[in-house]
């Protein structure tokens, strides 16, 4: 879900050659069943590494970060709608204004043991340096996530 804010309306954007568009997103997921989550991560890892043996799996999925990475690499998101991960789970209830769960409600029966818990997306124009141009020497995560810099012309 993209949240269009009043600030967006105050600033018109004129597209320029070389302009960088940054997409930032936050996806929240609640672990309902850790065993199902790890099994889904194992399946996802094996989808891209079909010859992996138990020792390789143990190293590749050594911690929760690796399990998250395996699912994202396979499905391009953590709590995918792919039938392998979401089939058979309860349907979100229909309520006034749309479909979804109320605050605190979870999807208890997804095969991946996860309950999607929200997503927000920010579209930003104006970063000076695309990530690619940093090469091997990225600034800190905090610096990368800072507000977009205004163009040099407007700060002089």
Labels describing this entry:
two-stranded antiparallel sheet, 7 helices, 156 residues, 17% strand, alpha+beta, 4 strands, two-stranded antiparallel ribbon
Could you explain how this protein is built, in words?
- This protein has one domain (6-155).
- It has 156 residues and is of the alpha+beta class.
- The strands form two sheets. The protein has a two-stranded antiparallel sheet. Strands 2-3 form a two-stranded antiparallel sheet.
- Helix content is 33%, strand content 17%.
- Residues 84-113 are annotated as: Disordered.
Binned, the helix content reads: 25-40%
Uncertain residue segments: 149-156
Q: What integer is the average pLDDT? A: 79
Largest sheet: 2 strands, antiparallel
* Tally of discrete structural domains: 1
Strand line-up across the major sheet: 1-4
Q: Which of globular, elongated, flat, extended, rod-shaped describes the shape?
A: globular
Cα-to-Cα separation, first versus last residue: 36 Å
Radius of gyration: 20 Å
Question: Structural class from helices and strands?
Answer: alpha+beta
What's the SSE pattern? HEHHHHEEEHH
* Percentage of residues in strands: 15-25%
What is the overall number of helices? 7
Task: Please count the beta strands (DSSP E, at least 2 residues each).
Answer: 4
């Amino acid at each position: 879900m993209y949240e269009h804010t009043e600030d967006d309306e105050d600033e018109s954007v004129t597209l320029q050659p070389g302009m960088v568009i940054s997409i930032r997103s936050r996806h929240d997921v609640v672990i309902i069943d850790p065993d199902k989550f790890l099994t889904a991560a194992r399946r996802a890892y094996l989808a891209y590494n079909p010859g992996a043996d138990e020792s390789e799996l143990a190293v590749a999925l050594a911690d929760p970060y690796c399990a998250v990475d395996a699912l994202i690499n396979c499905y391009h998101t953590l709590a995918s709608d792919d039938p392998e991960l979401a089939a058979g789970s309860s349907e979100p209830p229909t309520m006034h204004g749309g479909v979804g769960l109320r605050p605190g409600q979870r999807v208890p029966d997804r095969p991946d043991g996860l309950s999607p818990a929200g997503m927000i997306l920010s579209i930003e124009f104006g970063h000076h340096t695309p990530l690619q141009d940093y090469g091997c020497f990225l600034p800190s995560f905090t610096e990368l996530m800072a507000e977009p810099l205004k163009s040099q012309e407007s700060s002089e």
